[in-house]
Amino acid sequence: MTPIPLTFTDKLQEFNDCSESHKSAIDEITKEFEINTDKLKKISEHFRNEMNKGLEKHGQTVAMVPSYVTGIPTGKEVGTFLALDLGGTNLRMCQVNLEGDGKVSVRQQKYKVSDSLKNGEARHLFDYLADCVDKFLSEFNISSSAEDKLKLGFTFSFPVDQTAINKGSLIYWTKGYTAPGAVGKDVVFMLQDSLNRKVVPVEVTALVNDTVGTLLAHAYKHSNTLLGVILGTGTNGAYFEKISNIKKLKSFSSNADHMVINIEWGAFDNERKVLPLTMFDNKLDRKSNNPRKQALEKFISGMYLGEIARNVLLNLIDRTLLFDGFSSKDLNNQYYFETEYMSTIEADDTNTLEKTKRILEESLNLPSTTLTDRQIVKRVCQLVGLRAARLSAAALSAVISQCNVPESGCNIGIDGSLFLFYPSFKERIKRALKECLGPNADKIELDLAPDGSGVGAALAAMLSA
Ligand code: BGC
C-alpha cells in the first residue's frame, strides 16, 4: 500500500493486502482524525482565551471554578484526616496520615457504585456515601465522637459552582451519572445531611475536585508542581492562578497571592468552534446522555474512546469494508467496545495480531476476522488514541502558557486510567507538547500521580482548618 502523505509523527499500522476501496476509505478516515501542528496550536490558543473568559465571568463554558484553596502545601503538614472520593470508576474512602517531610500513609477501601445509584434519586446516592463512611470507620476501628468529629475532605469530581472551601452546588453530572435531585444543590450539605441522619460522627470540612486533590498531593511531594490533571474516565485539570487574575472573585479577601482553579476543561468548545468533529464524534454525542456537553471530554476520556472507535468500525462494516459486512450483537451494543480493548489492541505487536483476534472473536463474538480486518481495527484504535493524546497536549500547553514556568522547569502530576495504562499516551502527549511549546517543553515533567485525590482532599481539609 502506498504511504499516506500525512503529518503523523506516529508510525501507524499498515496493511499487507487490501483493495483500492479499502485504501481510500482508510485514507479518508485517517485524514479526518489527523490534527497537524497548526491546528493543535489554534486549539491551544482558543483554549487559553476561553480560560481567560472563565476567569472574568461566571457561567462561561470553561467554568474556571475557584477552589478556595489558597495555601500551597509545604510538605510539612501533619495530621490525620478522612477523605471520600466520588467520581472515578469506584468510590474510595481513605484515612490519610500526613507525616510531614512530604511523607504520607494511607489506609483505603474501594466501594462499587452501581448504575442504579448513579442514575436513581440523588438522596439514595448520598445515603450510600454516608453508609460507606460508616462501614469504613468500623472496618478500620477508627473512633470518633459527636463532640470531637473527624474531619473529612470530600473529593467530588463533577462540575460544581463552588462558593467556599466547604460549599458548592452541582452544575451538571458527567461521566454517566444522571441522579436527579442534585443539580443546583450544595453537595457538601447533602453529604453532611446523610451523615447526620445516620449519626456518623464526621464533619465535611472541604470540597475538592479530583484535579485539585491531585495537584495538592503532588505539590506536597514536589514543590515545583504546576498542574494536577486527570486523564481517566473523565478529564480535567487544576493549577495555581494569581488571585488578581480571577476577576470574577469580587468579594473574596485573603493575604494569599494564588488560588487553585479547577478548570473544568471537559466542557471546552461545547460551541464546536475548533474541535475537529467527525461524524463518529457527532453520533457519540447525539446518543449520549449529555448531548452538546463535555465536548473536549468526549474526544479525550476513557469513557468515550472505545465508543468513538466502535462508531468508526460500524461505519466500515456498513460499507462492507470490514468483517465482510458482518457485525455481532456485542459490537452493535453502545459502549461495548471498551477503551481497555483499545489499549490491548494498540499494544499488540504480534505479526498476526493475535491479541486483537482474541478480543474481536472471543470477547466481541465476531464470527471470524482476517489479518486485514485486524490491521484496520488496530489503525482505527491508533487514530482515536493518538487524537486524544494530542488534544490533551493542546489543553496542557494552554495552561502551561498561562503559568510562569520557572527556568528550572516544572512538574505536572497526572492520574487516571488512560495515563496509567494506555500505550504511548504519555509519549504522544510529550511529542505534541513539543510541537506547541518548542524546546521549553523539555523542561516539563509529566509525572504519574497515583491516587492523589484522597491525599489531596485530606490536605484541603487541613489547609482549610
Ligand atoms: C468532571 C471533572 C473531573 C473530571 C475527571 C469530568 O467529567 O467534570 O470535575 O475532574 O471528570 O474526573
From TrEMBL:
Belongs to the hexokinase family. It comes from Rhizophagus irregularis. One of its GO terms (molecular function) is glucokinase activity. This is Phosphotransferase. InterPro entries: ATPase_NBD, Hexokinase, Hexokinase_C, Hexokinase_N. Residues 26-220 form the Hexokinase N-terminal domain. It catalyses: D-glucose + ATP = D-glucose 6-phosphate + ADP + H(+); a D-hexose + ATP = a D-hexose 6-phosphate + ADP + H(+). GO terms for biological process: glucose metabolic process; glycolytic process; intracellular glucose homeostasis. Keywords: ATP-binding, Glycolysis, Kinase, Nucleotide-binding, Transferase.
